[in-house]
Amino acid sequence: MKISTRLASNLVTCRFELDAPLGEGAWWFGDAESAKASPLAEKVFGIDTVSGVKVNGSTLSVTRDTYEDWPAVTRQVAALIEGHAASGRPAVKDGTPTNLPTAAEIKAKAAAILESEINPAVAAHGGEISLVDVKDATIYVKLLGGCHGCASAAVTLRQGVERALREAIPQLDDVLDVTDHASGENPYYQGH
Q: Which pairing describes strands 174-177 and 127-135: parallel, antiparallel, or unpaired?
């Protein structure tokens, strides 16, 4: 079995891409109790700091409480995946209902959070966060007004916007900023 990994932009989620599907459907396990429906997820929850496991086709996403020591955790998870694949057992027990929100449900919830929690806070600095799109479990946002080109845009996105969205929608893959921060009349942010 071939496994490739990709650390999400939030640095607390790592995706393990496999060359074979783990099952038909998509499931989120947000704690060790719910993970009992998945022999694989249950084993992954045995790793300290794991706070969520998503099984979706040929992808296993692992979310942790910290971004530290991913290399060691990645090796542990890869070994668990390989061992599970060798067992021939399904990754999720038959009859376990799919429980991931749809893109439309994520979009509605994200829009509500932006409107009620995030935009009132950034409006104090003349900014606004606009929801551009949702594809699968990835949210695309654009920073406007005082947030457009701001030197603190990346911090606002990761520590404010993404944190609030993940608390409400833990199944997210990524929150991506599609703003062209270098454009505009007075951009501060020069990028890296």
A: unpaired
Is residue 167 very low, low, confident or very high in pLDDT (cuts 50, 70, 90)? confident
Q: What domain range is 127 assigned to?
A: 103-177
Give per-residue pLDDT as tens, 83-120. 998 898 899 999 999 889 999 999 999 999 999 999 99
CATH code of residue 21: 3.30.1370.70
Task: Give 75-134 as a DSSP string.
Answer: HHHHHHHHHHHHHT--SS-TTPPP-PPPHHHHHHHHHHHIIIIIHHHHHTTTEEEEEEEE
**Same-domain pairing of 116 and 149:** yes
| Cα gap 74→62, rounded to integer Å | 9
